Amino acid sequence: MHTSSRHGLSLVAVSLLTLGLNHTAIAGEDLFGYVKGAEAMPKDAIELYQKITLRNDKGQGTYRGINYETEFEYGLTNKLAVSASAKFMSLDTSGLIIDGYLPAEKKIGFQSSGAEVGLSYMFLSPAKDDIGLSMTASLDYDWIDVHSGQDKDTLSLDLGLQTQKYMLEGELIWVGNLGMESTYADRAPIANLPEDFEWSTDPEMELELKMGTGLSYRFAPNWFVSAEVLFETEFETEIGQERWSFFAGPSLHYGSADWWATLTWLPQLSGGGEQYQGQRDTSLHLIEKTKQEIRLKVAFNF
């Protein structure tokens, strides 16, 4: 091979390596399992992704819920995107009855459970401005209670603000989230419950407040390792503050031009509010939440 040819190939190799090392997460990639970034999808971009969440362990008996969400997102402009998703679930619970929440052991195979539509708008771009800022809004309708598997109609409006900051030329990424979800819930009656078992069929209003933050570091081309912290608290019509929980855990993310995937483990570190009778670990909220969640997201970009 001529010297000039070898020199040309060397320049190409160096250029490709440099591009790989300088690669940052493209718009639309979720580096975290729960908190979201502020970068918008480009105009006419399409993303199809599958989210699978395992909710496991209430400290007694068996509790294993799996939630599936298939989402389609489309960039209307370089700042505005719309989305629609279908939700499914399976549930296996035994050896645990919780007054007012888990009325019976339940085993549900894979079945549809809800649907959601949403939009997001980017006010400031983290790639072009000092800090990114976006908002999200979604309307969610479920017909199965995600906790008990019983029939329950819920209509929720979820509003969120997202901030994002690129640091160290994109190697380090910080995000922060604020969110509020307001829900109207109406349970279906259940026959043959014990006389002293509470199962309210009066419509309820719920308000959930959420705060989260995370840091993500690119440790190799296309690879990111992340850590996130999430706080959630919920208020109900008659009870007031019903629960609160802190969660924190790591994520591993891989992203290419055509697809990306994120795997997250999020254990509950502390929690409070209502507890079920005989609950052993009183430092956690284990009525509506579990000791840990594992989430996998896989997405394809078009």
UniProtKB/TrEMBL annotation:
This is DUF6662 family protein. InterPro entries: DUF6662.
